[in-house]
Amino acid sequence: MNGPQDAGGRMGFGPVEAEVDEPVFHAPWERRALALNVAAGAAGQWTIDQSRHAREDCPPADYYSFSYYQIWMRALENMLVERGLATRDEIATGQMQQPLRAGITPLAGDRVADVLAAGFPYDRDPKGQAPAYPLGTRVRTRNLQPRGHIRLPSYCRGKVGEVTTIHGYHVFPDTSAEGDKSIAHWLYAVTFQARDLFGDRAAEGDTVCVDLWEPYLDAE
Amino acid sequence: MPHDHADHDHTHDHSDLDDMTARVMAMEKLLVDKGLVDPAALDAIVETYEEKIGPRNGAKVVARAWTDPDFAAALKDDATTAIATLGFSGRGGEHMMALFNTPDQHNMVVCTLCSCYPWPVLGLPPVWYKSMPYRSRAISEPRAVLAEFGVTLPEGTKIRVWDSTSELRYLVIPMRPEGTEGWTAEQLETLVTRDSMIGTGLAGARP
């Protein structure tokens, strides 16, 4: 979506401010917010792309004023409500009024190490389907502007680049963000001349490399 | 207690934190009571990302690549597998790619759309990496951003910025500092900063 998350190339946000000896968390609640999101996600009621879309689907003024974990908590609340896993009233009070429906298994404490170490791989079997664009192909990104989730940044829509890596056959985020994890497409690293994207703000010869799925691309 | 200005600010900040503390505590109680999360899992997740996983993992990968040409070749060929041989794998790093800096090309990583970051080798990202100034500018004016980190590249070095738009996760392999011939991997690890593995720093430089 053309939402507040699509930050690349925007102006006016000021300098990058790095904190010396930054702690992993800045308040005790941030620890629990991170853990709640990871643990609830591992219960399998939404895909990672659904959680990304829940975070970006936020009024821009809120998105830009909330801290990172505030954005995560807002999205977690919305995902729970949308799926009927909790009500607004339950979330506000912390008091359970309806039990969870049957068939949902939480991530058990003694499985955390194994589950995190295994991760959730996103590559799939292409079942004989070959990539449409071999290495070195000149491709043009499509001018896609869906209301839903997409991983094609607005700064590289309608731009010409070159396929420099074929990463594999990966779950397609646009459909994964609608809950369908069964669809995958070839994923490429496409390299653009920075000046083709950002004009003379960019230095001659600098490049930008973006991971893009086949449905985002046409042969040039 | 004096009620000066600083004290007022402190109180104000504290009440903001308390709002989030209350909200997160209510959520934790609700989800535990519902059985959607196991409280022991929450503790294990916090312990993992606060104490076990961090940029020292990535430093081990880099130092090994600097000292072991076979490992460097394996890392270039299939970073996910090579990094897993050192014991680092999993969530947020399922598909890894190593980006080797050279005198001709400096690599720098950003996630303009969210906050994708290679958790198994670098831990959780710092606030600046997730912030709008970095996400908006690293892609379009990397040299200005590098200058804010105190980094100036030699003339002739091109920059390639990698936008983490997929589940690929990127680890920059900085160039080995000069004058470190004969150093052991353990000694070299101390020169590998977190920022040098994002591409906003160089190895051997503070911080």
Outline the structure in words:
The complex is a heterodimer of chains A (220) and B (207). Helix content of chain A is 30%, strand content 16%. Chain A is α+β, with helices and mostly antiparallel strands and 220 residues long. Chain A has 2 domains: 28-118, Orthogonal Bundle (Cyclin A, domain 1), CATH 1.10.472.20; 138-219, SH3 type barrels. Chain A has a 5-stranded antiparallel beta sheet. In chain B, helix 3 packs across helix 4. Chain B has helices spanning 5-34, 39-52, 55-67, 69-77, 79-84, 119-122, 127-130, 132-137, 142-148, 185-189, 194-198, and strands spanning 95-100, 105-110, 158-163, 168-173. Chain B is mainly alpha-helical and 207 residues long. Chain B contains 11 helices and 4 strands, in the order αααααββααααββαα. Chain B has a two-stranded parallel sheet with strand order 1-4. Chain B folds into 2 domains: 5-50; 55-198, Nitrile Hydratase, Chain A (Alpha-Beta Complex). The interface between A and B is large, with 102 and 79 residues.
Write the SSE topology.
The complex is a heterodimer of chains A (220) and B (207).
Chain A: H1 28-42, H2 48-56, H3 60-65, H4 68-82, H5 88-93, H6 112-118, E1 138-141, E2 160-171, H7 173-176, E3 184-193, H8 194-198, E4 207-213, E5 217-219
Antiparallel strand pairs in A: 1-2, 1-5, 2-3, 3-4
Chain B: H1 5-34, H2 39-52, H3 55-67, H4 69-77, H5 79-84, E1 95-100, E2 105-110, H6 119-122, H7 127-130, H8 132-137, H9 142-148, E3 158-163, E4 168-173, H10 185-189, H11 194-198
Parallel strand pairs in B: 1-4, 2-3
